């Protein structure tokens, strides 16, 4: 084992948050080492056509994703069951490689609602504590929307997000999302084009009195030079976003926004193929001193640093804290400890609409194309008498029509044979998708810890997930099924299918990779792992960024918020921490 | 959709510029005249420039495909060819999975990393688990096929006196339904697990890029009207309710054509019939 020359900061995982950290620190003159377990990759030549439009390799065989054979998670619905390894990914698929999940994402870039940051206190103020339920541990974030609004703005201009403001400088604007928090500026780019089904959705939800607006998108709608001076390409609606990388440099990612400058900066050193094993603390246990990792040759290396940023994917952040013994592990029986507490997910309730004799051309698409209503998200509607909190963004978005995964058939169709084939032929181009992407509350009994039995390819314990659906998720799903049915009818669909959330969470069918929590932020060290700057309460030179810090999940995609929070952290680190290391809150 | 096709050409000139530089003499004159459509289309600067292609494979080298079964045994090939034809049959909508090469696709997949379970976590201990915990067998997919095919043939022989592929179609369907529902019980692997793999792989082989040996002649894509990989729809996406009838394009088409032309234009979508007048907002 070698101990390397000390540096100012180490970044563990070089995706969206790690890239933002490295960019801001190197601009402030600090030396930064980026430890990335995957390989270097860039738009050219790694993401180029025609190979990148290979549905089998990327969409089915998970070319851009974490290798489950080497590192997976174990899972059970509740603590009375034995956890077993997720032997092949299904419900969620963690990314891998430089740029992380920001390479294969769809590009939907939301701001969470002001309510989302104050879920517990605002719920109690409006409805009383009874609606939450005894086991619900959803809480306030310790930061408000207004505090991070400038950083949302910063991330949106970094990416060149296309959208239409609905609440700009105190004014509500029709055609945008009138429910959103106040914006200081309009989006940097105009919204995406709408699909045919989006047009039907706009008309249908308009008839119902709802407020449709274009989904905010990181699939660039016009050439954009960001504040870093980096030029972002133009989306051509190819229909290969999620699970794929973008050949156009048009889907905002580390590669299209920050990497060109970062790679030119001698203050930054990227070390690909570096698998981090643990963060090492000093004897006091209050300060991190170094990071131990395996290099590409399998040799253990130790990199000392003054600051350590944990910027891997949410679940992997939590696991690294547990492996490094930073923070007290959560114990659901005694209800003590914090690391692994408040793991939450997302509730997707979908509908497929079937038409006759139309041409939807759903293969002309983009990951973040779509038309949304936010009338039933967060606390935008009255929950009195509903017995659940939170909600969903309801939208029409056909992100693709890649045929292995997209060939919908109406209910009652056999799964194979001539009748199946006839239905696929008839409806491939006569169908449209609706989705309600719902928030998910946190519960005392849903949590993450280290598995006592199973290990990864390097001999370290896997992370164990104990997770099921409870009151708020089931009731929300039933509510959304009704709303989706109402909208489907208003869109003149001849037939449609919707599906209630199953009784128990199932890790087999793909649902969402918006896994959150486990290293949550807050104002109280007894119920949070990090403060509002993502700074560990236990080791103040360790910062844990990303969706692991969300105390529960909103009815939105997480990237806009985790990008904003990363900039919020870095503003405080650069302006205050570097000059005077110590607790920022 | 002339706008998108033109854009597709222009984009290729930009994206394929590394190859153009090395072989301008044989590049398509039309492509060379094309101007970049906008500065913003250009790829961002890369720290790793693409070197000019020195030894571009010829069309012939990539086009020759010596197909042979690599994993499946003779009796297994007979089973898979028969089974996939029942799952996606030849009918009024055109050729089915057998003609589309799906048996060969499945064989190639089973012979490779999918069949070997290379991306499956394979550490013990093993437990049956709950349905919500997913696949928990110690068998690789290739092993599931071996056992599942043998068990299905054994059942067919017991029930009807013949192995599966020698039964008529109606009886084959009855057997497949029994495997699908689990009514037919296998000794080694759950029948439903085997059927799920067989059906999933058959659909994949029908719709995956032809470079993997199935979806031969893009039969699967032509059946449903998927245009394939030459996907530039900037000017078409908002032309509502208008047919987009084109001859689909696969990865090999694009790659072989561009290599043959050494940097020329990619294969374009060719309209197979006139699109007719746009019927905008036809939501009657």
- Total DSSP E strands of chain A: 24
The count of helical stretches of chain A stands at 14
* Rg result of chain B: 24 Å
Q: What is the N-to-C succession of helices and strands of chain B?
A: HHHHHHHHHHHEHE
Q: State mean pLDDT of chain A (0 to 100 scale).
A: 97
Overall structural domain count of chain A: 1
Number of domains in the coordinates of chain B? 2
CATH top level of chain A is Alpha Beta
SS element count, helices of chain B: 12
Structural features, described:
The complex is a heterodimer of chains A (585) and B (284). Chain A is an alpha/beta fold and 585 residues long. Chain A has a single domain, classed as 3-Layer(bba) Sandwich (FAD/NAD(P)-binding domain). Chain A is built from 14 helices and 24 strands. In chain A, strands 1, 2, 3, 11, 12, 13, 14 and 24 form an eight-stranded mixed sheet that branches. A six-stranded antiparallel sheet of chain A has the order 8-17-18-19-16-22, covered by helices on one side. In chain A, strands 5-4-21-20 form a four-stranded mixed sheet, with helices on one face. In chain A, α7 (145-159) crosses α14 (559-577). The two termini of chain A are 36 Å apart. The relative contact order of chain A is 0.19. The mean pLDDT of chain A is 97. With 284 residues, chain B is an all-alpha fold. Chain B has two domains: 2-65 and 226-271, no CATH class; 74-123 and 130-212, no CATH class. Helices cover 44% and strands 1% of the residues of chain B. Chain B has twelve helices and two strands. Chain B has helices spanning 2-15, 17-22, 29-33, 59-63, 74-87, 102-111, 113-116, 141-160, 169-181, 191-207, 219-224, 251-260; strands at residues 246-247, 270-271. In chain B, strands 1-2 form a two-stranded antiparallel sheet. In chain B, α8 (141-160) crosses α10 (191-207) and α9 (169-181) crosses α10. The longest helix of chain B is centred in the middle third of the chain and has 20 residues, at 141-160. The relative contact order of chain B is 0.16.
